[in-house]
Amino acid sequence: MSGMPVGIDLGTTYSLISVFAEAGTSKLVPGADGTFLTPSAVGLSDTGSLLVGAAAKARQLTNPDRTHVLFKRHMGTGKEFRLGRKTYSASDLSALVLRKLADDFRAAYPDTAIESLVVSVPAYFSSAQREATMLAAELAGLPRPRLVNEPTAAALAYGLQDREGESTFIVLDLGGGTFDVSIIEMFEGVMEVRASSGDVVLGGEDFTDVIARDISEKLLVDLDGVGDAKRSIIATAAEAVKRRLSEAATAQVTVPLGKGKDYSLTREAFEALSAKLLIALRRPIDRCLYDAGVSVDRIDRVVLVGGATRMPMIRSLAARALRRLPEAGLHPDLVVAIGASVQAALVQRNAALSDLTMTDVAPFSLGINSVVHMPSGTIQNGFTPSRSQRFSTIADQQAEIEFGVFQGESPMAFENARIGEGKVRVPRAPAGQEGIDVRFSYDTSGLLHVGITVVSTGQRSEIVIEGGAQSLSPEERKRRIRALEALMVHPRDESVNVATLERLKGLYSMLLGQERESSAELIARFEQALASQDPRRIAQVRDEVELAASRMEENYVR
Amino acid sequence: MSASPFPWNVLGLTRNATEKEVRRAYATKLKLLDTAKDPEQFQELRGAYELALMLAQVAEAGNVEGADDKGIEQDASVSSDDGIDDFVEHQSRPALAPPKQTTVPFETMHTLVAERNYSVGEWQRLLNDPLLDDPGAGAAFESALVSALSENELKAESTLSAGKAWRDLIESRYAWVGDGIRYPRKFPFPSDLRQVLVELGRSSRALPYSPVRETNQFAGLGKVVLVLLLLGALIQLLNKMAT
Fold first, then answer.
1. Do you find a cis peptide bond into B7, omega within 30 degrees of 0?
2. What is the residue-level pLDDT of chain A in tens, covering all 558 positions?
3. Which of chain A's ends, N or C, has fewer CB atoms near its CB within 10 Å?
4. Is the distance from CB of A176 to CB of A11 less than 8 angstroms?
5. A319-363 pLDDT, tens digit each
6. Chain B CB contacts of A159 below 8 Å
7. What DSSP letter does each residue of A468-502 carry, written as one string?
8. CA geometry: angle at A143 spanning A141 and A146, to 5°?
9. How far is residue A536 CA from its own chain's centroid?
10. Where are the domains of chain B?
11. Per the CB < 8 Å rule, is A465 touching B224?
């Protein structure tokens, strides 16, 4: 069995898997339904089995209480998601999505193992969030992955196209739930991330939310008071309006509340509603330029990544802030996954990429304080992956030095988040004569290692700063992997049919009058085909009703 | 070659290497190195590269008055002796082209501050003014805003007559409170502004500009601390057993 480098973009709204093929290029792997984008959604079917991907996403509209989406926003937290009688962590749900992607890989490349696995994460993900992502891969039965920052992955995909080139480019990655900005310099086959910044709670979904709030205000619905079902109808309408406004100046929908209520929005009004979000978007851009220490005139290319960058207001903001028209040579939804498998090939030291190297930055500023909680200098973020600082004893005959590790942007250590601590023994001596060197380094996945060397004896020790996820014992971990394996997940091929049926049911709930009747007819037709149990007939009817459904969806927003 | 001093010796270059030569030498050496396995060697190479690159850039800027880079124009005229420090300063704080005809938002801002008008709606409109999206104008505006708030408002009273919503809006744009490293570097003159903003946020027990990120970061912290404490105890125990 041969092995392949595999990259996964585990996104807030969609996830993708790609392989680095022997020809030296990245290839996306399609799911059973032939599409590359797997919705990051997990739900419970009527029969009690789990649905992952399109089938779950389609049921969000009709069964919001039995569907979970956007769980990436809760990675590394203790939040629990209930499905039926069981509860799941964000890592568990992500593991189910990863397992679905791995199944797609096995279907496309039977008898091929995953040799090196890279999963992408937002550049601004904390150690806890990174650990939770790695745990998700392990729970899915995949090899322990390396992580790559999403904008870096995007840059790799672009860099691969133009390896000899010399350029400085900025990547703006506005995904479903996160915003990342990175400045990357490329020369002589070296790609260096000069600076990274971002906001882990700002994404395309927030723009959808702005429209949903406006719909409920205009149509006099209390968004927090209505039930899940109505809320997801409004959210679906908002999403449709948002998409439409990326192509047209106005959008109109009939929201199926009561006898149907009309709602319309113009591009300008949408921009005004999004004022707060647009203001927050500018901060990471400013900061990234500042940290990279490059003048905006030295930036040659502006690359937009993530589905939400399709919004015209984002494109024009980028153009004004960077004095350059953004390019979109590669598909903004696919580019991170492509880059992730390039990174997987780099990790494997693939021969096709021997002329390319990549170095990345430390995303956070780090600092430590010593035993008396004296604020010590912080270590700034910058692009050397490893820096060291010396601390001396402050009392005669002091036998130990105790310290805390802080992460954050305040010059006073105690104002930052305390992420770890340690204690080292030092030989007894007069104050100031003994000391320790503390070295911070990020490993290739962005996890923080703290190395301590006692100056006089040269004795070394190391701590890895980990998120809560890591504190699982090996037994607990094994138990969770087994528990997840034992879950009944809907069969891969049948999931395609469930997704189609649920999509039609969703349409039925969004449409009114004549159109609602048409959607009911489609449901009846497809159910009839399903009842025949003839795979060829099912496939044929499925294609037909999907086409009809697409047309009806397009007509939904005017 | 071994005769040349640091940083050029690490890169195998001579003292007068050009920017292009420095980059090429760095690229060649970097590709021979496994950075994950040998972080110390990488750090040495990286340090040498950064310094050599900077020296080459300073030398080139000195040779050609106002060379192709507008960002470092001012440095070209600085005599080479004290030029390096200045250059480093500008590296971390890019000088941008002067603002174009963008006086309108500046005037609006001064009026609002003078009138003590901290209406969130008006400030939202102001901060979203496309004229301020140009990096040069944006940076100038940020400085002007800091000065206006510090001088006009804070001199009269020791607090701002603004509400928490206004403070959160400003914070979401500039992170003056949340980012304690860049703020003092950008605005080194003493001012109570940051402290006042901290208190404005605290008054209603508000979290800084991105509450969810905060929860994410702190989540599981208790567990981490506990594990680390246990780890510390274990290390101590092992140490005792060893001695």
1. yes
2. 568 999 999 999 999 999 998 878 899 999 988 899 999 999 998 888 899 999 999 888 888 889 999 999 899 888 899 998 889 999 999 999 999 999 999 999 998 999 899 999 988 787 788 889 999 999 999 998 999 989 889 988 887 777 777 889 899 999 888 899 999 888 888 888 888 888 878 999 999 999 999 999 998 877 777 777 888 889 999 999 999 999 999 999 999 887 888 999 999 999 999 999 999 999 999 989 988 888 888 898 999 999 899 999 999 999 999 999 998 678 889 999 999 999 999 888 877 777 777 776 554 555 555 433 233 333 444 333 445 667 777 777 777 777 777 666 555 565 566 666 777 788 888 877 887 887 776 666 767 777 888 888 888 887 776 554 455 677 888 888 888 888 878 888 788 888 899 889 888 888 888 888 988 999 999 999 988 888 899 999 999 999 999 888 888 888
3. N
4. yes
5. 999 999 998 678 889 999 999 999 999 888 877 777 777 776 554
6. none
7. GGGG--HHHHHHHHHHHHHS-BPPHHHHHHHHHHH
8. 130
9. 37
10. 8-92, 103-209, 213-243
11. yes
Which residues 198-217 of chain A have a CB within 8 Å of chain B?
Answer: 199-202
* Token pair recorded at residue A400: 């130990």
Please name the residue that has the structure tokens 């991330």.
A193
A389 touches chain B (CB under 8 A): no
| Residue A189 Rama label (left phi>0; alpha psi -120 to 50; beta) | left
- C-beta separation of A489 from A93 below 8 A: no
Selected for mutation to probe chain A from B169, B217, B218, B223 (highest A CB count within 10 Å) is B217
Closest CB to B182 among A276, A290, A320: A290
**What is the ipTM, given to two decimal places?**
0.74
Residues 61-100 of chain A whose Cβ lies under 8 A from any Cβ of chain B: 73-78
- DSSP letter at B5? P
Contact A14, A37 (CB under 8 A): yes
Residues in Cβ contact with B55 at an 8 Å cutoff, skipping those fewer than 6 apart: B7, B84
* Neighbouring C-alpha atoms within 13 Å toward the C-beta of B118: 16
CA distance to partner chain B, nearest, from residue A504 (Å): 35
Residue listed under structure tokens 């899940």: A228
pLDDT for B5-59, tens place per residue?
Answer: 888 898 999 888 888 899 899 988 888 887 667 767 877 888 888 889 888 888 8
- C-beta atoms of B220 and A469 within 8 A: yes
**Could B128 and A275 be called an inter-chain contact, meaning their C-beta atoms sit closer than 8 Å?**
yes
Residue A357 with chain B: CB contacts under 8 Å? 27, 30-31, 35
In this structure, what token pair is assigned to residue A503? 């999509």
CATH of the structural domain A2-202+278-355, one choice from 2.60.40.10, 3.30.420.40, 3.40.1360.10, 3.40.50.980: 3.30.420.40
* Residue A390, phi then psi, degrees to nearest 5: -110, 140
Q: Which two tokens stand for residue A556?
A: 């939904």
- Residue B97: its chain A contacts at CB < 8 A? 297
Count of C-beta atoms within a 10 Å radius of residue A488: 10
Contact B181 A188 (CB under 8 A): no
Of A325, A300, A361, nearest to A152 by C-alpha is A361
Residue B171 Cα to chain centre, angstroms: 16
**Residue B90 DSSP SS3:** helix
CB A133 within 8 A of CB A94: yes
3-state secondary structure of A165: coil
The phi and psi torsions of A120 (rounded to 5 degrees) equal -90, 145
CATH code linked to domain A366-471: 2.60.34.10
pTM above 0.80, yes or no: no
Q: Say whether B210 and A200 touch across the interface (CB within 8 A).
A: yes
Phi, psi of A83 (to 5 degrees): -135, 110
Tokens of A183: 């400045």
Name the DSSP class of A180. Answer: E
